[in-house]
Amino acid sequence: MRTRRAAVVFIFVTVMLDMLALGLIAPVLPKLILDFLGGNMNMAADWNGIFGTVFAAMQFFFSPVLGVVSDRFGRRPVILLSNLGLGLDYIVMALSPIFLGRIISGITASSIPTAMAYIADVVPKEKRAGAFGMIGVAFGLGFILGPAVGGPLGDISPRLPFWIAAGFSLLNWLYGFFFVPESLPREQRQEFTLRRANPIGSLVLLRSHSELWKLATLQFLAYISHEVFTIWALYAIYRYTWNQTTIGISLAVVGVCTAAISGGLTGRIVAGLGERRTLYIGQFFGAVGMVIAGVARTGAVYFASIPVISMWNISFPAAQGMMTRRVSEREQGELQGAIQSLRSIAFIIGPYLFSRTYSWFIDPKHPFHVPGAPYYLAATLLFTACLLATRIEKQKPAVAPTEDVPDVIAPDVVGSGTVGPLTEGPEGERL
């Protein structure tokens, strides 16, 4: 029991430090791209989308491989590899072209899917929504400090946050190397096969149950919608002339809202309304918040959209919990790899879709000037996902639990939030 509690604490620290590192560079990267392009906002928007697409393409091909590797060799080596890879990636980005750094981090950034599988290993099915909420709290805490510090550091030197981010990621790797236990027993491991490891083959699992496929479809729309935040910083620079410090503060507010909702509200909402209702209510709030962001004529109203959008956090753990109930214990790593493949497809499409939409609607050559158009598009997709979620049937777990797992997280201790829509980053680390 004590060992497993320590393991869950490690996952919490891993995600928090990863998000702290990501948060440090979040306010800086868009401005760095803009400076490289001589202040050309249209080109910066397009290249910002290209960087996101390249990163997602790397994840699409490599995340399923690492997910199946974790089913074969355990979660620990994959998480350690990810932490080390991200640390080296930030060093590369501090010294050389950003494009190369995005390729490296796209290959190695997989700690979140593996962390989700780790949680599924040690927590009973009925409490996984609460356990996934721990990930949301960690995201929030990391993203409170990271952007608030990274913004002012970026105003000093655009390269400085990358060095500090590298330090946090490498510190995380050292912590895991010395203290992390393995969560997957040897008797529950599966053989490595190319069918399960390839990005298309991994999606077969999502089609194995009709309700699982429905959940995957509506989550796919949500993942695409999430990519509107690729333009968060560039939009604020263009429309409200924010500097990197202000952008950092706005992202820190995102972290505060994420932690508060994940740790304080979501568990109660899931307990009171159930996972299915929580899923579509969260998506509804996300859609409304995006409309507010799109119509905002002042920075204050743009800020006000953050807590509304952050209520979207309640839908992600509900979806995760519902999906893990529909596969066996031996397939949790494969499921998380498949979900990551689904995310990666959305991440390939989303950044360029929203960046290009933004670029087109702010181009003075075109007849329509609608800077908020990307947010309106995201709201439409989310409203569609919300309607689909109302059609998900209540269903018993497809596979009964193979063994009793000790209760490591009390429902009154950890809320059931998860990766926040505004803060989900590379592994999900999307911004």
CATH architecture title: Up-down Bundle
Strand content: under 5%
Secondary structure class reads: mainly alpha
Q: What is the top-level CATH class? A: Mainly Alpha
Main β-sheet description: none
Assembly classification: single chain
| Radius of gyration using CA atoms only | 20 Å
Compute the number of helices. 17
Overall pLDDT score: 76
Shape: globular
The number of strands is 0
Proportion of residues in helical segments: over 70%
**CATH superfamily label:** MFS general substrate transporter like domains
Integer count of domains: 1
Low-confidence stretches: 397-421, 423-431
| CATH domain fold name | Growth Hormone, Chain: A
